[in-house]
Amino acid sequence: MTRKGGAQRIVVAGGAGYIGSHVCVELLQGGKSLLVIDDFSNSSPEALKRVREISGADIELLRADLADPAQEGAVIERVAKFRPDGAVHLAGLKAVGESVAEPMRYYRVNLGATLTLVKALDAAGARLVVFSSSATVYGERNANPVPETGALGPTNPYGRTKLFIEEMLRDLQRADERWKICNLRYFNPVGAHASGRLGEDPAGVPNNLFPYIAQVAVGRRATLAVFGNDYPTRDGTGVRDFIHVEDLARGHGAALDHLAGEKKGLALDVNLGTGRGYSVLEAVAAFKRASNRDIPYEIAPRREGDVAEIFADASLARALFGWRAEKSLDDMCADHWRWQRDNPDGYGRLKPQS
Ligand code: UFG
């Protein structure tokens, strides 16, 4: 739960998505009032319905595409009317492969949405943003654990949109010192809400490890392809810092409260990770234990752009916010499995009206 702070009215851009919906629950349980802006291009109104059920609180919703110039006026008007104290910005496209094939779309949507959101916040006098960034902004040559001062250098257009947005927000803060910015660099968010009601619902074939494992466990896909077993890691497979999405959501509440408590404007970059890494095969074994299902896998070639190992130096979030990840890999697997088992088709193909 978040503390009662000076930032009580929050715009959550992209609030219906996997991470956004968990952030909404966390902020509502911390007593905050929310305006979610989402176009449901890769999310479902059903997620917000469930957020309301879990939290017992209402949410205001603006269904809008932040990257569409024709909708900018309506966004500015609605945000002003809401009288926010700040925003959590999670609106954007996030598929690495797609970003390589359609880079201009990624730049237009991710950067464009940010420009509109910033304009609307500025007009409303709410100069506080917690941005959903990613460990993907780091270059490939950093030693682990990676601190926020690590070398930057994303390897694909999606990652570059994250880095460019961080830079845009830092430039904004330099130009107008009233802004309070926190770029949260997520490591590998996995798991689901412990209720089994919220979770990740990827469209099509999952790109990421956990949704893929979960769909194999539930029988929707036959075999997991493990991308490479010849990395210089303890079992040869890739090592990542998996973090429970509820811990991650709590990090957003902590960041908002921290920014609100600062007297002056500032721009921060903060890792959200557990500080330890697990290998792909360790994750598969843990998921197998949690689900009590077989997870057949085969070793496949390395995936282009993957690093052998990356995990966070998570000490800054602890020092600044008093936050640290609390849930274990077994918790991540148990909660991810509960969500997958109870919602084998995610939120369903039928997208209910909200
Ligand atoms: N992996 C497999 N099989 C799969 C999927 C993944 O073996 O079917 C492996 C990967 O090779 C990697 C590990 O599982 O070693 C984790 O892969 P994910 O795709 O789950 O996560 P990444 O570390 O690649 O992803 C992170 C962020 C993304 C971001 C990406 C950018 O979670 O949001 O970095 O490279 F887009």
- How would you write the strand order of the largest sheet? 3-2-1-4-5-6-11
**Could you list the spans in which at least 5 consecutive residues all have pLDDT below 50?**
350-354
Quickly give the structural class. Answer: alpha/beta
Bound molecules: uridine-5'-diphosphate-4-deoxy-4-fluoro-alpha-D-galactose
| Name of the CATH class | Alpha Beta
Can you give me a brief rundown of this structure?
By secondary structure, the chain is α/β, with parallel strands linked by helices. It has a single domain, classed as 3-Layer(aba) Sandwich (Rossmann fold). It is built from eleven helices and 14 strands.
List the helices and strands and how they pair.
Elements: E1 9-13, H1 18-29, E2 33-38, H2 45-55, E3 60-63, H3 72-82, E4 86-89, H4 96-101, H5 103-123, E5 128-134, H6 157-175, E6 180-186, E7 188-190, H7 209-217, E8 224-227, E9 239-240, E10 242-244, H8 245-261, E11 266-272, E12 278-279, H9 280-291, E13 297-300, E14 309-310, H10 315-321, H11 329-342
Parallel strand pairs: 1-2, 1-4, 2-3, 4-5, 5-6, 6-11, 7-10, 8-13, 9-14
Antiparallel strand pairs: 9-12
Helix pairs in contact: 1-2, 1-8, 3-5, 5-6, 7-9, 7-11, 9-11
The protein binds uridine-5'-diphosphate-4-deoxy-4-fluoro-alpha-D-galactose.
Uridine-5'-diphosphate-4-deoxy-4-fluoro-alpha-D-galactose (UFG) binds at residues 94, 96, 134, 136, 158-159, 188, 207-209, 212, 224-227, 238, 240, 280, 303, 305-306.
